Amino acid sequence: AQTVTQSQPEMSVQEAETVTLSCTYDTSESDYYLFWYKQPPSRQMILVIRQEAYKQQNATENRFSVNFQKAAKSFSLKISDSQLGDAAMYFCAYRRRSGATNKLIFGTGTLLAVQP
Amino acid sequence: DTAVSQTPKYLVTQMGNDKSIKCEQNLGHDTMYWYKQDSKKFLKIMFSYNNKELIINETVPNRFSPKSPDKAHLNLHINSLELGDSAVYFCASSQKAWGSYGYTFGSGTRLTVV
User: Fold this and answer.
1) Which of A35, A103, A106 sits opposite B102 (nearest CB)?
2) pLDDT tens per residue, range A45-86
3) What are phi and psi of B91, to 5 degrees?
């Protein structure tokens, strides 16, 4: 069974600084998708960024980028120029490519605090 | 227009009661899901429907029964509520049951059983 591990329960960053959130996963599949979701205090789950395993190029969305290391099964999220609005719980998630019942599997989350 | 809407947002009820949570999506997606987020914020899938057909049914007590009258709606009915059912329940949808599509989530229903 696939698992997703986030080893940092909490992180803190100063406003305008850069922070990296870690995620590792375990799978025997060769083709899959990885996601980072953000959950602010409002509770809404927001998709931050997505990576396709067959693409070597790391995904980037404005201030958010990932470091995808397929051999190491690592998928970290880098937030540059951190803003107060980035404070939230961040979840790493995995989804198989094939099969009709491939569900999104989440890690346990990292709570990010942004200090002014 | 809200893409995935859940009602109610908050639900407080007594042990033993029966309650329902409703979910509707206006994105034209084929697949809908129910996830449970526990007090430690862990998100776990409960059910998934694809075009009204149940395709995922995780190990969930049979007091929980999903119903999908059409592909835009997925409801969750819970019988004989227990204290341990207290959690946030999220509805989500995706364009297809497979592939690179991320999920669009509703804003969640916080269920408190007293």
Assistant:
1) A35
2) 999 999 999 988 999 999 999 999 999 999 999 999 999 999
3) -95, 145
